[in-house]
User: Which sequence fits this backbone?
């Protein structure tokens, strides 16, 4: 019996689209940090806070550079090769990493504290007679300045290097590729190829122009330290983080005179840096947290409201333009303050807060939201323009309601119900009632403000200029010439009814806005804006399914053999003759 097994795998790919197309896409609001201003004094330019989680990662290094014991003059002198602190900070908005190397004098010793001043005499370009070897200016000759970076935490396998090649000087300071064959013994000899992705600029040198950016070319008494910035830091080989997200790296700094000052030892400063959000430190990879020498915390970067939405929101924020701009006009054919030009949106996953901005059209009016007649005063009407009332602070029948379709159950969020929550103010109220409200199943989008009765307890909405129940920071209570927009933030955004995403995960929602005064200003219509927002890229999802089928075939072959023997005897006159005949029949049967 022979058995044959055949396996067949069928792959099926199915592409699905979200319930409605996204008109605009937002990116998560990420973290930011102020960029330090280099002055050449690292201890002042960075915050000196070792072992503290704050906006600077500070790694202390012991005073361990020594002179040859027989040099009496060098006793109690701190060399300029001795590094006291390594500072690090990062700006995710610009994807720049900032490093500071602080060369200080050990307490009780003499010395200059100038990086590269081998003998500590205050001049890194001259040597004392007792120094055996050279003290070259600007790290020339055999002087070494190399920081090796391990970007994927697999030390001693480094991934990039920042510094100067062998027998070069500070004018060659930059980011270099680190070859697989590189070793920590004489690391500067391996710096031969620039790392194109991520240039490094040293304070005192501008690599692009070859001109000084500090008052001197290298460290000196007024600017004693080494400070440099690495651009496009997240693009360094080995990194896999998105700017604003946590990341980790290790470094090794080689700092010394090489064979040029044989009477002074070399500095090797090593450390690990963990970069984490300030509100919720993540869990680093196994073994990283315990070994981190310093922590840098990303500061949250919420939208800062000023009352001008067009200015406060920026690149990367969702911007939904009204499909019919300028469609709400006064009897004089000027643009009404009910006309919405753009709806802006941003979201911070770190604090689960959504930010909305309503930018009203200023094509031929004041551009002040709620200024019905466009005359520049949202609290007074111009009787010559129209019959009606322009009430202050959205009073009387003036209204703003934002309906949210958070479970995406409307193929086009234009008409009908299907919304889960509402943000705005109820009928016959004013901006002091602006908040998040429960949206009833029988609510009518056409008269939405009449359905705003019960506040949504999960998720508070705070309006710039008003805080529910009390005044919120803003120089005016409602939109004005100085603060023309409606801006508000919704806390606990992921908890709104209908949502099922966790902060940091993609999500989408539809919206419908009604902005106007109904019959209060009989000559002017209301504005209606509809659309949808996707946080990140969510319009298409592809699912690949593999199906495996196993077929087993068994073949059995049976062979039967039958032998027949025949004996014939005959008698003749001469005697008896016997003949034998044998017949063999074979039958083969095959069954599958």
Assistant:
């Amino acid at each position: 019996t022979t058995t044959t097994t055949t396996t067949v795998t069928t792959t099926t790919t199915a592409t699905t689209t979200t319930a409605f197309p996204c008109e605009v896409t937002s990116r998560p609001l990420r973290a930011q940090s102020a960029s330090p201003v280099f002055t050449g004094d690292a201890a002042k330019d960075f915050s000196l806070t070792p072992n503290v989680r704050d906006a600077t990662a500070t790694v202390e290094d012991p005073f361990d550079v020594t002179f040859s014991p027989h040099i009496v003059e060098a006793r109690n002198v701190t060399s300029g090769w001795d590094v006291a602190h390594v500072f690090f900070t990062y700006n995710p908005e610009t994807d720049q990493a900032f490093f500071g190397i602080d060369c200080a004098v050990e307490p009780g010793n003499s010395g200059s504290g100038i990086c590269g001043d081998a003998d500590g005499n205050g001049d890194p370009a001259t040597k004392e007679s007792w120094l055996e070897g050279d003290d070259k200016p600007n790290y020339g000759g055999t002087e070494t300045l190399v920081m090796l970076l391990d970007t994927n935490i697999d030390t001693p396998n480094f991934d990039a290097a920042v510094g100067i090649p062998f027998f070069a000087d500070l004018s060659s300071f930059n980011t270099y590729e680190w070859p697989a064959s590189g070793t920590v013994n004489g690391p500067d000899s391996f710096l031969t190829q620039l790392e194109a992705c991520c240039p490094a600029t040293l304070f005192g040198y501008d690599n692009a122009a070859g001109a000084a950016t500090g008052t001197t070319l290298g460290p000196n008494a007024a600017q004693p330290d080494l400070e440099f910035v690495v651009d496009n830091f997240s693009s360094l080989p080995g990194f896999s983080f998105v700017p604003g997200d946590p990341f980790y790296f290790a470094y090794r700094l080689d700092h010394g005179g090489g064979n040029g000052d044989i009477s002074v030892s070399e500095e090797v400063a090593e450390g690990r840096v963990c970069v984490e959000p300030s509100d919720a430190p993540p869990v680093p990879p196994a073994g990283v947290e315990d070994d981190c020498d310093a922590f840098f915390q990303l500061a949250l970067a919420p939208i800062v409201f000023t009352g001008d939405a067009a200015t406060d929101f920026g690149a990367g924020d969702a911007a939904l333009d009204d499909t019919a701009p300028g469609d709400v006009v006064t009897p004089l054919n000027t643009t009404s303050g009910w006309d919405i030009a753009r709806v802006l949106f941003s979201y911070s996953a770190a604090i689960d807060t959504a930010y909305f901005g309503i930018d009203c059209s200023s094509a031929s009016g004041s551009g002040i939201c709620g200024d019905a007649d466009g005359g520049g005063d949202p609290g007074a009407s111009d009787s010559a323009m129209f019959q009606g009332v322009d009430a202050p602070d959205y009073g009387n029948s003036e209204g703003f309601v934002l309906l949210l379709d958070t479970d995406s159950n409307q193929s086009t969020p234009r008409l009908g119900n299907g919304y889960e929550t509402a943000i705005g103010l109820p009928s016959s109220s004013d901006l002091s009632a602006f908040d998040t409200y429960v949206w009833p199943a029988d609510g009518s989008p056409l008269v939405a403000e009449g359905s705003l009765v019960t506040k949504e307890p999960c998720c508070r909405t705070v309006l710039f200029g008003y805080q529910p129940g009390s005044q919120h920071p803003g120089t005016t209570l409602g939109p004005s010439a100085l603060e023309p927009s409606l801006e508000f933030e919704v806390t606990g955004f992921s908890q709104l009814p209908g949502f099922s995403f966790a902060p940091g995960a993609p999500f989408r929602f539809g919206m419908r806005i009604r902005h106007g005064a109904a019959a209060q200003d009989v000559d002017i219509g209301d504005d209606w804006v509809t659309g949808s927002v996707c946080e990140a890229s969510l319009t298409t999802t592809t699912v690949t399914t593999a199906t495996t089928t196993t077929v087993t075939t068994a073949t059995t072959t049976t062979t039967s053999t039958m032998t027949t023997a025949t004996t014939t005897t005959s008698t003749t006159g001469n005697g008896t003759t016997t003949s034998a005949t044998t017949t063999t029949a074979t039958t083969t049967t095959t069954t599958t």
Observations:
- The helical segments are 42-45, 288-291, 309-312.
- The chain has three helices and 25 strands.
